[in-house]
Amino acid sequence: MDANLINIFYTDKDWIVTTNQNGKTKITARNENELHEETKNFIEIEDKKPETTRENYVFMKTKIARLFISDIHCAVKSDDYFKFKNVLFAGLELFGTVTSAYVHGDYNCVVLDDGTSNIICLFKKYIADEAKIHCDKKLQNFYSALKNDNTDSLILKVAIMMKKNTRDVLSKVPRLTEINIGDTVRIVGKLSEYNNKKYVFINRFNLDNSNQGLEDNLKQLLDLKYRLHKIQAIVSDVPPPGVSILKPLMGVDPNLSSNLETFFTMNYPSYELLFSVEDKKDPAIEIVNTLKEKYPKVDATIYTGGSTVGVNPKINNINTAYEASNYDLILISDSGIRMKEDTLLDMVNHLSDRTGIVHQMPFTCDRNGFAATLEKIYFGTAQSRIYLAADLLGTNCHTGMSTLMRKQVLEQQGGLKKFGCYLAEDYFIAQCFLDNGWRLAISSHPALQNSGTCDVHSFQERLLRWAKLRVAMVPLLILLEPLSECMVIGFFAAWSTSYLFKFEPLVFYLVHILLWFMCDWILLSIVQNGSLPFNKFDFIIGWLFRECSGPYLFLLAFMNPAIRWRNRMFKLAWGGLAQEINPRIKC
Ligand SMILES: CCCCCCCC/C=C\CCCCCCCC(=O)N[C@@H](CO)[C@H](O)/C=C/CCCCCCCCCCCCC
Ligand SMILES: O=c1ccn([C@@H]2O[C@H](COP(=O)(O)OP(=O)(O)O[C@H]3OC[C@@H](O)[C@H](O)[C@H]3O)[C@@H](O)[C@H]2O)c(=O)[nH]1
């Protein structure tokens, strides 16, 4: 921190706002590890004295804020300035990575992410593209007129000077085609707000790729970061297609309202939300109604009562909503999922003529407690490695907590109800797409599970249920799945190398575990794409717990095949057909 800082005039758990004797204001983040090196110090420097004070806020028209994007979303917008931590700013400077770029109406849009959040930054197509061409043409004409010297050269010189200025301003905003996904950029602009969403109107746009560290390069070597977090740009004048989002709800947890709210605030031009609640007295209905009132412009409907079209209670719950859906793309999204503002756009961008399904790889939001750490470790290591490997090999490993699919393909099979006789409808839906020649793709955004109910017992129950589904559907996994566990394969590898090469088995086993552990840490950091919410010691404990309990859970699943899902019990036949143990209908 600067030595000449003399006055702390605002602090909280995240920020310290200070001024020095010249009246300069500095906002410093307390927790700096999440940020890019460049944005560690959020210094707004303006030599002018405050021009005026308004409602006790220091106000300088020319102030430029350099803030986290997540904080920009919390800033209060008013007239031609915005307020953050009691400081008024006229404009802002952002630093981050371009995660998406597309044309929307008259605007070129760039989605910028700085690791804390993302925001849409836009500039008029006309300004960016045609104006530059127009300017260059005019300049050419002026130059040739000046060369011929048959008009008043002074006027021409002034005109040339002015046009050059205009071109300089315009050249600070690139064309959309000049921007690449993954570019690190610096944007200066004005904050704007529409429909409770913040946007930045770009005044200046600079590429800045000078800050890639060794870690970044290593990750890129592995190519996983590219596959997971770099998003394809679709530069097109055609707006993205409409999406019908099916949200099956059953009961309420402490995070439900905030999770569902993220579906009302997505940056996507046309979508409808179709909530399904089986029990008409379910308190989830009240939560959805409150959100509908808060966001009246979002097209949202609630379907209650469900319909019994099969054994799978999730399918029974959403089938009516599915049949009422209006768009050609269907997103089935479980109740505990949170969406980033640009996730839906990213998923749609991953569709191609041959891709029928785009799914999000299961992962978790940052939450506190051992259970949350354990969940993050499981999804970011043991599960990600198989999920990504399966994706690479084109094998079906689809988990249906957030899946975008083409309705036309489902309809050809007889609709969603066709899959109601399976408990693992997700696996069979994906298999059906594959069998019909369609490809599956993984979204760049991992699925952010954020259920408010997070404890070790229910997490293990869930893993147990999934293991039972897998064993019934793909019996070969009885053999292969234990072999994919670090402790089990390590044991066999140590035994065989000691037999074949006379290696010391204990040393081999410990080195194997250490290497596996380190690879898992790297993989988890890649999937997280930012700082982890726990330290290395927590990781060691969570990782050891997961690795030791994994094979044990698998054994349990194998020994007792009865499946409990929420308030119902099921059993599965080999192949995956389900039967409810107090059946209500026959499949
Ligand atoms: C010598 C080592 C051989 C390794 C073979 C790998 C065997 C697969 C091991 C574990 C499977 C983990 C699956 C991860 C996520 C599944 C989550 C889940 O169970 N979801 C269900 C509920 O939503 C869903 O219905 C099931 C979906 C997929 C089940 C089929 C999994 C087959 C995976 C085969 C992957 C092959 C990858 C090959 C890697 C070398
Ligand atoms: O009886 C039920 C159970 C569940 N559901 C809904 O189904 C969704 C998933 O339920 P849970 O969160 O309990 O289950 P999981 O996260 O384990 O689901 C996962 O595994 C089983 C697959 O069939 C699912 O597609 C997959 O998302 C939720 O939105 C839930 O509200 C119902 O509508 N009715």
Automatic annotation (TrEMBL):
An annotated GO cellular component: Golgi membrane
Give the location in the cell: Golgi apparatus membrane
Membrane topology, record value: Multi-pass membrane protein
SUPFAM superfamilies in the cross-refs: Nucleic acid-binding proteins, Nucleotide-diphospho-sugar transferases
Q: Which reaction does it catalyse?
A: N-(9Z-octadecenoyl)-sphing-4-enine + UDP-alpha-D-xylose = beta-D-xylosyl-(1<->1')-N-(9Z-octadecenoyl)-sphing-4-enine + UDP + H(+); UDP-alpha-D-xylose + an N-acylsphing-4-enine = a beta-D-xylosyl-(1<->1')-N-acylsphing-4-enine + UDP + H(+)
- GO terms (BP aspect): glucosylceramide biosynthetic process
> Does the keyword section mention Lipid metabolism?
yes
GO terms, molecular function: ceramide glucosyltransferase activity
Q: What is its EC number?
A: 2.4.1.80
**Predominant location category:** Golgi
Name of the featured protein: ceramide glucosyltransferase
Q: Please report the organism this UniProt entry assigns to the protein.
A: Brassicogethes aeneus (Rape pollen beetle)
